[in-house]
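worker-03 picked up job from queue 'complexes'. Input manifest follows; two sequence lines, order preserved.
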Amino acid sequence: MTEEIIIAGFGGQGVLSMGKILAYSGIMQEQEVSWMPSYGPEMRGGTANVTVILSDDRVSSPVLQSFDTAILLNQQSMDKFESTLKPGGLMIYDPNGITRHPKRDDIRIFQVEATAEAARMKSPITFNMLVLGAYIKVNPVVDFENVILGLKKSLPQRHHHLIPKNETAISRGMEMVHEAKRTP
Amino acid sequence: MKEIALMKGNEAVAEAAIRAGVDGYFGYPITPQSEVMEYLMLQRPEERTGMVVLQAESEVASINMVYGAAGTGKKVMTSSSSPGISLMQEGISYIAGAELPCLIVNVVRGGPGLGTIQPSQADYFQSVKGGGHGDYRLIVLAPASVQEMADFVDLGFELAFKYRNPAMILSDGLIGQMMEKVELPPQKERVKEFDQSWVITGKTQDRERNIITSLNLDPDLQYEHNLKLQEKYKSMEQDVMFEKIDCDDADYLLVAYGSSARICQKTVDMARSKGKKIGLLRPKTLDPFPSAELAKMSRRVKAMMAVELSAGQMVEDVRLAVNGKVPVYHYGMVGGKIHSPDDVLSEVEDKFIGGY
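worker-03 finished. Artifact:
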């Protein structure tokens, strides 16, 4: 099994840390992992993205042009990465602020209203965990238990009191994710 | 028990430095390697091992602090990225001339000039052909993973002390910034007792003082010194290291180091799944360069292609090694852009398969 994932959105949405938690979760179940962030001009204001690879074998290139899964959290990312999904690939996106929805019919498309839910939960910082929950529900490449272990490894000790809150958000994301209605 | 961590390449260098029992680190921040010193400072190595970590006022100061401390026989290092390494070249030449061991880490970014903060491999010439003045060589190691970023710290020091010569880890923004699983090396004690026969400290009543200098105004002495250096550089060739991937039955050979080698690994997998017999030779040491192995391979393969994030630097050494026996192509990307495995594959299909 090799799963090649791109996670993209605005800086501050927790894109990089979500990727890191995913990578740690992979390590928890003995997978090989790589995490390659955008650290360039885009990080200094604007969009951020990270490529995460989880694999049972040695990870070759950390740099990729096409992906099995794209988790897209703003319009710019949608415009940039929709075309990079492999046929049969998986897209998960938050429809908040999206006016140009995905058009491809050779991929599976799911939505999670994470921005709205995070606001409703009065916990905007758990936005990325809602999205992570959505992902592991649709594609269980890592087990829920290992994600929680990954979360513990990824967060510094002083933030460990936030783990239950994040766990709730992951579960909520798993409940909320649904297949996107095709816009004609 | 194995200690596994998920770390950036830059952090792995820093953690490995503490664990290698390094005595001192002197540096100045620059993207994309600033995490090296950030991580060191956060770890409070002065409490863990007594290691000194100091932010100097500039790269010029850092390398001269390394020069001074190396003269006392201590294990010392610095790290920077391309423009900072350019500033250090005078010091590096002096350290090589004075025959002192140290480790320099270059997390390369795109140039020339201030260039860009994105990954590049365009400092190859500077690293292996002498970025500073004079007939000197470095030991140049090229890590292709976060694990090797950690492992090459200890290896770099081992070779630096073996030859009393500066060693360089030539990495880039991609390997420095990416996170991978890394098995951390065991903690080594800092060395308290060491060979003091050449160092400037610890002079006893019964021996002459040692002088460490790169200046020798007497041409006869400087001539002798240069001959001795060349002999040393020749003997370094025994420590050449490389990895061969899918080379046994390969008709065509890719040659790539560091991040490009990782990208090429995927290209090889893709080409093989299409039934094309492509192999990859990955130099782990760029100086010494695996010229003998490439010459050997040139008798078996139909063509070679050097793949690097530059306009064509290492390709010259591949051409020298095979000496016209087979065509040697170059594929590269410049200015901080990165070629994808698919880009390399289409070049491979065009040049190798299409060209024959």
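worker-03 released lock.
The longest strand of chain A covers residues 2-10.
The CA atoms of residues 33 and 41 of chain A lie 25 Å apart.
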